[in-house]
Prior knowledge:
Residues 1-58 form the HTH lysR-type domain. The chain has helices at residues 3-15, 18-25, 29-43, 59-90, 103-114, 166-170, 178-182, 193-204, 218-226, 273-289, and strands at residues 48-51, 54-57, 92-97, 119-124, 137-140, 147-162, 175-177, 187-188, 213-214, 232-235, 247-253, 257-266. It is α/β, with parallel strands linked by helices.
Amino acid sequence: MRLTQLEYFIDIATTQNMSRSARNLHVAQPSLSRTIHALEDELATPLFTRNGRALELNSAGKKSLEVATATLGTLNTGIEDLNHYIDQTDNQVTIRIESSTTMIPGILEYLHRTVPDVSIHLIQHGLENNLLVHYDFEFSTHPVKDNENQLMLSEEIYFGVAENSPLSRAAVDNKITVSELAQNQLICTEPNPLRELVLRTLQHHGATIRPSFSTGDRATIIGMVRSGVGLCFIPQCSWPGVDLTGVRLLSFAPEPITRNIYLSMPTSSVRSSKHLTVAKAICDYMTTLK
C-alpha cells in the first residue's frame, strides 16, 4: 500500500466522483481508476459500490476511510513535528568544552555579533552524559577520536614571574629552567587539561612539582605572582583580557611548552549552512587571539 493510493482513495471517498477527483488531484482519470483498482486488489475487497459514474463507499470502504484518514493524519503531524525540530536545530548550536576557559566570553560575544540569529548552548565535558548528549562542536586540546578535528590555535605556554623578582633578574634570554621552577612555589589553575600538560612536561624533565596554591580565578593567580608569592604558567593566547602588568613571561628551557586547541566535530552530525557559518566564526575569532 502506497501513500498515493491512500490520498487518492480519501479524495474519491469525499467527492464520490472519479472525474471530479481526477481534476482535484491533477491526474488522468484512467490512471486514478487503475490506482483505486490496485488498492482494492491489494486489500482483496471492493471499497465502493458503483452505479454508473456514481461511487459510494461500502462498509469495507467506510472502515478503510477511517484507517486511511488516521494514517495520513499521523504522518502529516509527524512531518510537521520534524520540520519544527529541524527549524529549531538549524538555529541552535551546542558547543562542548573540556573546562572553563577565559576564551568563552569572547567567543560568545563574537558569535552574538557575527551570527546573531543562532542560539548557542554550552555543555561542559564531564558534567553531563557525554556519550548521550548531542553536541555540534567541541573545544579540545587533542584530536577527538572518530571526529573531524580542525586545528584552530597553537600557542606557547609561558611561565610568569614578578618583574622585580630574583627569577626575573636572573633570567637569560627570557628562559627558565626546570631546576629554577623546582625551587619556587607554583601557583596553578584548578585541575584542567592545561595544568595536566604543564605538570606532565615538568615531570618528563625530572621535576615532580606539587602546586602550592590552586584557584580557578586567573586574576588571583596573576595577582599572587605580581606580589612575588610564586610563579605560574600562562598560555600565550587563550587567556585574553588577563592583566599582566608587573609580570614577566619566560619560555621553558630547553624547549618551549606548546599546546594545540582544536575545533572537533562529530562526523555523524548533520551540519546546516548555519552550523558551518558558526564554525567559521569560531575559527575567525581564534585568529584574533594570535
